[in-house]
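U., I forgot to send this yesterday:
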Amino acid sequence: MANTNTNWLSMSDKSIVSVIGEYIKHQRLTQNKSQKVIAEAAGINRWTMSKIENGEPISLLSLIQILRALNLLDVLNVFKVQPQISPLELAKLEKQRRQRASSDSGKNKQDKSEW
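Result:
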């Protein structure tokens, strides 16, 4: 099993690029696809595929194209901003939440004519 506790903060930028390259290479080989096939599907040069797999930097756009060709765009979900509610706002919402249902006794009552 692979080590999932990578300490990203202690790694240099070059080391992080190498880990990304290893990930891409591993995923490509797992899918049994050549660099040429992925490069063509991504619309990039095979040389660019070789660069990232060897731990050399490439453009962000090229990385996204490679992830798309490998059907791995879901790894980008970590960048999605999730709205967060502050503890104070949560407490206010909880206070406003209904605790009991009201009775129906006046809603269906019709006014009677006094004639």
